[in-house]
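Sat 14:20. Reprocessing the chain from the morning session after the first attempt stalled halfway. Input below, unchanged.
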Amino acid sequence: MPSVYIRPIALAESPQSEEGAAVRLGGGLVYASRFALIVRDGGKITTRQRLGTAEMPSAIAALPDDLGAEAAVQWENLRKSHAPLVCGQRMLRLDQPQIMGILNVTPDSFSDGGQFLDKPDAALDHAHAMLSAGAGLIDIGGESTRPGAAAVWEGDEVKRVVPVIEKLAAAGAAISIDSRRSSVIEAALAAGAHIVNDVSAMRHDQRTVEIVAKAGVPVVLMHAPGTDGDLHADGEYADVVLDVFDALRERRDAALAAGIAREKILLDPGIGFGKSLAQNLALINALPMFHALGQPILFGASRKRMIGALSNEVPAYQRMAGSVMLALKAMDAGCQMVRVHDVAETVQAFHVWRGLRDAALTDFSQLV
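Finished this time. Tokens:
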């Protein structure tokens, strides 16, 4: 059955730079002026039109009925603004990027494994340092999901994350729980977590869907090709960008069917999970397209191996500059949330990025 996709292919620094012929992506500070209208059938692209903003409505109307209806939804979704996320006493606005700080309470995470395991004071100090540096929320995980990581008993995962969550929640922080196990998620929410960040997109544990729907909390659905023990397995794609888009659409629709509210769903293309270097780069270059799914986008590539692969295989702790570069790329694509280890450096980069955006939006000389 044919499928249709709308991919922004030209970004503008402001709407006035295109004399109004640009659309605001995802309700943020990024604008697009040209688009590829793509039709795929049987895994192969059959047509690809390159169109300006003014040409899009008529091109969509010319599509066959089913494709035209889907394309019209995607066209509307690209321009959709998103309500803030409610995290206890805090509201996370999604009209500009939010920085999510990573706190791994694990022995074997690829970058910071062991630094905070069984060291609650060190973990809390690090979390508070990230919040003071400008992180909007803290993402707490008790299981490493790097390739080849050892399995963790869920009881141990609960013991790792709950004490830290309880203390951070008492301090008024916005918290997400990075887990794919329902018992861990349930315990984390009871301890005060506000958001569920599930790297399996709720495929690993069927009970997670019920818990999230009942709690009414936001959930991040990440793409990973594998199931069960190895999320990195089965990474075979006809077209990695379109295949990941389709997979995230399916998980979004499954969440909606399970009773999770539309405004509570965030999507993550899963950089580094079952993807080669070339496939990761293709996904990052195509990030603006994922706004067509109509949900906020979370991007996470901090210190990942692709940075080392492009930088003489430097170890994870030396990948800060590459991580900030990728974070800025995500901001340029309009991603609403960026998950990072190096919070202070990323926040500083964000402030400069935001200054450039504000300057472009207030530069009315472009209209003269």
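The chain has a mean pLDDT of 93.
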